[in-house]
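pasting for the record
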Amino acid sequence: MSSSMKLFGVIGASHCSPEIYELARQVGNAIAKTNAMLVCGGLGGVMEAACRGAKEAGGLTIGILPGTDKSEANAYVDIPIVTGIRDARNTIIARTADGLIAVSGEYGTLSEIAFAKKFGKPVVCLRSWSFDSTIPQADEAEQAVAFFLGLLK
């Protein structure tokens, strides 16, 4: 992989509503169309949806898994990375990605947002946490990806 290859992180809960699943799928699809790779936690819910969307657009996906078995990965993960470090993997996701798009999410998502901000990485929230006025808030997938691309420039 070239060092210039972009890795866009998508974070969110492992269980989500059909509406949030569809938003995450659209985000993954839009990311793949930028020729960036998608990195996520590799499990279900938002992570699965984003990977599915990326695969539908011919993209490559990486899942940073919490456990020790690569079979934990959702069916749309191309490269499963097993860590055995549970939620501590959130720091790896935040460090590995060039930035994060948070789709809805719970406290694990919040921790990833905090790590990304600590590491100086751009973050966009799509119907997600709103606690920092410097983090753009989006309502739709295309808007979130557009905001994210703007932050990378």
